[in-house]
Each structure stands twice: as structure tokens, then as C-alpha cells.
Amino acid sequence: MEKKQNPNQRMLINIGLALCGFVAGSVVWGPASDLFKSNQSAKEPANERMIEQFNRLIREPQANQSAGLVLTEQDKELIGKTAAQYLIDHPENLVEAGKRLESNRDGEKMSNVVNTKDVLLESTYTPNYGPDNADVAVIEFFDYMCHFCQQSSPVLEKAISANKNVRTFFKDFTIFADRTPISGMGAKIGLYIFRTYGQDKYYEFHNKLMNETGIALQSKKDYSPQNLATLVHGLGYKDILDEHGNFLLTAQLRDQLQNVLDANMMLADKLNYSGTPVFIIMNIKNPQNKTTTIIPGAPDSYRLQQAIDKAKDN
Predict the structure, then answer these.
(1) Which of 27, 156, 250, 258 is the most exposed, fewest CB within 10 Å of its CB?
(2) What is the pTM of this model?
(3) Where are the alpha helices (DSSP H) in 248-314?
(4) For residues 57 and 78, what is the distance between their CA atoms, to the nearest angstrom?
(5) Residues 214, 306: Cα–Cα separation, whole Å
(6) 83-101 pLDDT, tens per residue?
(7) Residue ranges per domain, the chain?
(8) Following DSSP, what letter does each residue of 118-178 receive, concatenated?
(9) What is the pLDDT of residues 110-147, one digit of tens each?
(10) CA distances from 266 to 125, 182, 213, 253 (A)
């Protein structure tokens, strides 16, 4: 039960807990008349005196402090020692503070997502698959050379197949571009196919490349630009790469596609995403914190379906 305190008491407690690196709002005071009690006060006279001095400091009016509470260095030292002893006696409050801090961070992340919904749900340059009037969006930040993205691909396919009222947005987040050319090349080709041939052709290419790169990585084999060219030619696209994996697209067009990738990197940075995959599941028509889910890493089918069902519940 929280004990009501006057402003001077609250200031002292806040300072004391801040000195210990603790969040004052997470402390629940006991029913005793004094704000602090030691579990071992009978055995530790020095600690008892320190606590009594602190309680007296709180209770006694400060006649010469009309402008507010002024603390001496001795007062501050006393507060720090007393608050430290309290946390030693009540370590469960540190756990509670950690939970509250994590909860606050999660709420902030959700707010950032909801506030950037227009960018996340942009559909002209972002490859997407599903009905225009869908109620739920699944947004994935991914890289074609990311093992966990490859692992997530069949899970996402299953969810898309089972939920006809879901629209999936594919945000290329090319974090492996400095390690392998396939990261950036695959992303640009996907953007080009979506822009030129539409969502069905894009979805076919996307799943095919995810599958092939996944098999190569699992087999510890290199996936080369020539492999990518074979895939693209096999799907019937002769205008993108030559047989050696060199781009046939103009430099100007490739720059335009790179601009989309750069914008995705900036968006991911704004949302504090540094790895792949990241899934965001939200209601399209009325996105709210309470119905939005962020899943960092590869989800299983159950977890992804739970998030979709939650987003429907508006």
C-alpha cells in the first residue's frame, strides 16, 4: 500500500532512489508509520540510528527553506545510504522497476509504429500482396540473405494462405549488402518486378528467391549472381540480368530502386530496428497500440496467427 507523502517527503524519496538508480514510482511502502524500516534494526544499532535520523529529517519542518527543500551534502549522503539499504532489504522492487521500464519501452515502440503507419502501409513503392480492402497488415523488414528471414518465409506463406483478409508489406532491409551482392541485387530485382509486373509476379519471385538462398545457406554453399540470373531467367524475365548476373537495367532506374532501399533503411533506423526479420502486425483501418504486435525474429505459425487475430479485434 502506498503511503501518502507531502512534497518534501516525496522530493527526499525521489532523490534517494535516484541516487541508487531506482525508479521511485515502483516502490510500494509498507503500513509502518516511518517511511523506512530495517529488517535487522534490532541487531544493527547504527542502521537504526541512520533510519531514525532520516525519518526525523522528513518530519521536522525546514524553517529557512521557504523557496523549497534544500539538501546539504550530509543529507544527500544519508538519503543515499538509507535508500540503498531499503533496496537491499527489498530486492523485489528492483525486479518490478525492470518490468515497468520494459513495459514503458514496449509502449513507446508501439506508439512509434502507429505514428508511422502511413509510411509502413505505403503501397506504391513497397511490394505488397493481398486485397486492397484488407483489415490487417503484416509488415516484414527482411533481407534475402538473412537465415531467420528464410526460416520465416514458409511460416508467412502459410499465414497468407490461411488469412484472405490480410495484406502483406515487404520492406527490404538490406543489412547484408556489405557482405554479399545478392542482398541488394535481390531487393532491387524484387522492387522492379513489383513495379513492372505486379504483386502476383513479385510474390512468386520473392518466395522463390527466399527458398533458393535458404537451401544454399543451409548447404553452406555460395549463392552467386549467376544463380540469381538463372532464377530470374527461369521465371521468364530476360530484361533484368544477363547470364553472368550483370544488371541490364539502366543506371538511372537502379538509382531509383536504391532510393527505395535507402528510405527503408531510414525508416528502420527511426523505429530502432537493427536486425532482421522484424514483423509488425496491425489493423489497417484503425491502428492502435493495443491491437498492434511487433515480433523481432522468426515467429512460429501460432504466434503469427495470434498477432493477426489480435489485430482484427478492433
Answers:
(1) 250
(2) 0.68
(3) 251-270, 301-312
(4) 10
(5) 26
(6) 777 767 767 666 665 555 4
(7) 109-311
(8) HHHT--SSS-EES-TT-SEEEEEEE-TT-HHHHHHHHHHHHHHHH-TTEEEEEEE--TTTT
(9) 678 999 999 999 999 999 999 999 999 999 999 999 99
(10) 15, 21, 26, 20
